[in-house]
Amino acid sequence: MSLGYAEKLSYREDVGTVGMPEKFDSPKLLQGKIEELAVMVQKSKHLVVFTGAGISTSSGIPDFRGPKGVWTLQRAGKGVPDASLPFHRAAPTLTHMALVELERAGLLKFVISQNVDSLHLRSGFPREKLAELHGNSSKEVCPCCKTEYLRDFEIETIGLKDTPRRCTDKNCGARLKDTVLDWEDALPPEEMNSAEEQCRAADLVLCLGTSLQITPACNMPLLSIKNGGKVAIVNLQATPKDKKASLVIHGLVDKVIAGVMCILSLRIPPYIRTDFIQLLLRHTVKKKCVRWTLRVTSVHGMRAPLSFLRSIEVSFPDRSDMKPVVLMEQPFSLQRETSMTSIFSMLLTLKFSDGCGNH
């Protein structure tokens, strides 16, 4: 969760300005600004969105610098926020899904994110149009062949360290590394270069839910202004870049984006979680028997745990002599022996937690 991520970071006394008061535009002023932003988005030829922690708070992940942010409370000696979901349990917000639709509609060309919660990728936003400047807590990368592994759990380490897993390419096999930056780590060149290139090309950079304090990332949106573009900011707190923005909106990001999408006559798609799992069935022949092994794994997670899968019931509908079994522990694996001449069907019932239902 974001709290766990904050605890993993190296200690740093100066984390910038925290706890600034939130501002809310009056309803009439807010509506006028939403209409103005909708026109700016509609007229833009190269829209880039720059996101911060504020777009994920409605999913249950606290921000860092808000009145009840992680660093704000810690500086005040008040511990950590009461409610916080682990990253893997949080669902993409209305804003995340709106960005998916804006990209599909051809209006949004690129997203630059400072977040490490993986919600942009889980929303279905295209990887090739996303720069994750500070990494992704659910992603590992092979330092040799550069293959990325998106997991369904939070990686154990941060700071570009070795993880317990290896690259699955038989010609590689190198130890994987996490992708989340610690304070002293430099921005990944590939992500930074693409982000800067997109900001230079943008005629509009829309900053959503970010205090624009962390350097060098916070200076990227201003690259568009140097080339004649504009910057618009939607945030509840004032930012150091407000004076250079063409439009500053103090309102909830979800509400602002919902209003813009309505004016543009674009529907925000619902988030539908998709879990990719892999069923492996292997058998060996021994005399007159067949010994077979069933194993259930995550396609992305390989042999790692399936975060939402709690149990698997294996039953044999047409064979009364074969007792059903419930697999409760990971890795989910079952071994059985049957006659070479016997035929049977197998029914798997996967039980998920966190409201995912049974499949």
From TrEMBL:
Domain Deacetylase sirtuin-type: 27-267
EC number: 2.3.1.286
Positions of Zn(2+) binding: 142, 145, 167, 172
Catalytic activity of the protein: N(6)-acetyl-L-lysyl-[protein] + NAD(+) + H2O = 2''-O-acetyl-ADP-D-ribose + nicotinamide + L-lysyl-[protein]
An MF annotation (GO) of this entry: metal ion binding
Subcellular location: Nucleus
Cellular component GO terms, alphabetical: nucleus
Catalytic residues, chain numbering: 134
Enzyme class, UniProt record, top EC level: transferase
Required cofactor names: Zn(2+)
Keywords of this entry: Metal-binding, NAD, Nucleus, Transferase, Zinc
Main location: nucleus
Family listed: Belongs to the sirtuin family. Class IV subfamily.
UniProt protein name: NAD-dependent protein deacetylase SRT1
Lineage of the organism: Eukaryota, Viridiplantae, Streptophyta, Embryophyta, Tracheophyta
